[in-house]
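Today's session is about reading a structure prediction critically. Students often jump straight to the picture, but the first step is always the sequence itself: look for stretches that repeat, for charged clusters, for runs of hydrophobic residues. Only then move on to the predicted structure, which in these notes is written as discrete structure tokens rather than atom positions. Here is the chain we will use throughout the hour.
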Amino acid sequence: MPFKAGLELTELQNMTVPEDDNISNDSNDFTEVENGQINSKFISDRESRRSLTNSHLEKKKCDEYIPGTTSLGMSVFNLSNAIMGSGILGLAFALANTGILLFLLLLVSVTLLSIYSIYLLLVCSKETGCMVYEKLGEQVFGTPGKMIVFGSTSLQNVGAMLSYLFIVKNELPSAIKFLMGEEESFSAWYVDGRILVVTVTFGIILPLCLLKNLGYLGYTSGFSLSCMVFFLIVVIYKKFQISCYELGLNATSPILSNSSEHEHMCKPKYVIFNSKTVYALPTIAFAFVCHPSVLPIYSELKDRSQKKMQLVSNISFFAMFVMYFMTAIFGYLTFYDNVQSDLLHKYQSKHDILILTVRLAVIVAVILTVPVLFFTVRSSLFELARKTKFDLCRHVLVTFVLLVIINLLVIFIPTMKDIFGVVGVTSANMLIFILPSSLYLKITHQDGAKLTQRIWASLFLALGIMFSLVSIPLVIYDWVQSGGSTEGH
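Below is the predicted structure for this chain, in token form.
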């Protein structure tokens, strides 16, 4: 019996599945729930019908069906924007500490695993009708599920904000020195990266974050993506302009003064294992996390279906895979072992208008992107606290406190690899591996027809747990051993 689109939830709750005299309790069939309708064929008994009707009611409670209006091409652009971020700046460093072959293997693996996790997420969304990650977690695991999803997505967004402000801290001093005509060694207090990041935060970002809604800031993601494409073009161009041999001659290290040692340093390496190799997988994982944006993009897709959204996902991830690999390989083949965790910071802007332009474009892009992420974190926090009604004092206080905490972290975290490492082994791992597989296994735990899919999802979950158990101790061990490197300042 089809439900009318205009029925209220209270009417649905009072409805019962009618008994059909032509259908016996011994009949061997099921009820299919799809697109707001219950299609009764032959059902096994009254309990089966009641169970499936309750399942449909839960779907109605989660999200009402609203047709999407965004084309497939624009959805690909939006998802690519969601994937692309500051993680691209750390991939050359990851390659330098794994070698070309091992890096390519890890990049391909994370790309395919991310696509599979999107598939699991879309299946869960279809089964429950939820188009919001937090609602999906609450629907399947109750309040603990909602808390875990909130924690993971918020940590991911905070990590992204930290990495963006770290770019400001690293790149803005060099840009200002160039505009002032000063040498890179110039060290006045007003070109200190820590002072500049605080000034930018409370002079530009704070007023934007105090706005009641995002408004035009939602369009900055397109500008941000354009800046990263421009950055990739410059990285490729600079590979053929900067000589590794010249870099060696300019170095003051006694090791590089030996020509044979220098020749060895300027040869590409294919497989490397060292203390920094542990950061490669978290950095790649951080670069591919887009899961909080998948369901909102799915909900806006015109004539949406799981198959169509999976196509959007496949195209977006393939495009980002190509872009990430090209940035990493050309960045590595420019600086080899001397590459830093912030690739852009390695390029010297002295007398180089092109590098200065890239720096300024990326700085402006990340400054305008921080408020977008901040709005998401703050609104999720208010939603969790059930304080959705706008209150000016609370709005200002929470905004100010969160920005102070984020600035303190940016000032005292020594390198971007630490941000990529921590967020990669925690929230990125949760969002890519653990949450999608856990949700899928819970939703399908009574579906015997999906045994094979459940086995694959279980292996996927085990891989995520193993990734955490191995990576977290290694990252902590590297912190203890390095004693707080100052690279990247």
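Discussion point for the tutorial: Residues 9-55 form one domain.
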